[in-house]
From TrEMBL:
This is Alpha/beta hydrolase family protein. The keyword Hydrolase applies. One of its GO terms (molecular function) is hydrolase activity. It comes from Priestia iocasae. The keyword Hydrolase applies.
Amino acid sequence: MKWMILVTGILGLILFFSFQPSKPVVSLKRLPVVFVHGYLGSERSLETMIQRFEQNGWGEKIAICEVDEDSTLHWTRFNAPQGDELQLVQVVFKDASNSIEQQAKWLDEVIKQVVKDTSQSDVYVIGHSMGGLASTAAVLYEQAPIAKLVTLGSPIEGLEYEQLMRHYPNSRNFQQSKGARDLQYGSLALQKLASEANKLTIPVFSGAGNIGDGTDQVVTIESAYGLQKFVPSIQLRTFSVGHSELHENNEVDRAVYEFLDEKGASS
């Protein structure tokens, strides 16, 4: 009788643990990736880059966050990946011509929510053009939990707005915006960023475009590489593409992925 009771007890324990719901496995090395568009950008700006990450099996889009002018966040969430893919989050600023500091504040709020939703401590961020400036400012001014930062064609040292208008005619309508003021050479916003940049201790990847004249049409290589003066751990890479093509290029995709994820080089 005692033998039967013992066997029954063991079988009961086995069945109990077999039917317990499994907890999601969280990989500490594969953090969520937040994509931030540039000046006057929209959802379309980085959408195709995210799609290529998905097609390559590198990640899966889990959310889009639209940020209103009044700082309200509107989330569209998708199912989290079942495997070990990177979780991709797209940020869209409705006021894409606002200041670097304001966009940094908005981005910090988005990142805090992503961290909460994914049960992670940090995120990776990819910022194109002004998005890279806002991302840098989010680390420096807001202490946003960013573990690695990618800047693509980001004018760390500024740009000429006249040059921007020549290649992006719509920017003529926003010459008086806060963003236009901040982007230009010698602006107070960029001076402040430079004065704080030596506090940036996270790994950085800075990509620059070069159409053959040392620029990507609007941003010089020197300006795109501006963080190298301050950041101890930085990778620099030049691609033979124009400004917008920096987020529409397979070579850029691969370089960014390999920087962000340790498994990228072997996949």
